[in-house]
Amino acid sequence: MHMIFMKIIGAVLIVGSGIYLSGNITMAMKRRLQELYALKTLMVLLEGDISYSISTLPECFLEISEKVDSPFDEWLHSLGNQLLNYEVGGFESIFQASIQTLKRDSYLRQEDMELILNLSGLLGFLDKDMQCNLVKLTRSRIEETIVQVEKGMKNQTKIIHTVGVLIGILIVIILI
Fold this sequence. Notes:
The protein is mostly helical. The chain is built from six helices and no strands.
């Protein structure tokens, strides 16, 4: 009797672990989508600051950092300060180095980071209209990515939850 009770508890823990793991994976997918929406908002704010403000890019980044959520607030604040202090390297190298911090602190994938990195080569070197067009282009690419992620996420979350439960059950069957 005692042995059966221990097996049942073990089986419940193993299946629960599979469910927990699948929940963590889907949470990361949802967090990525939230960050893509935040990145889109960031692009709208950046475009507005470039269009209507007389501020420099570092000042724009610092101003926008107060309006966005983590991890973009810390990234923009750090980027703005580095550019104001003009630490080693030019705009592009400082921007690219700061992306490494953002990559570490966010759920964005490499292909999402590439969208941001595309700004580094031209932002700050073009006139105001060209910079706005570059930001608009980046925003439209982010919107396309959001649509793709939303399409795939519905099916993937169901599959991930199912696989998590099935793997837990499979391990239980193997162990019994």
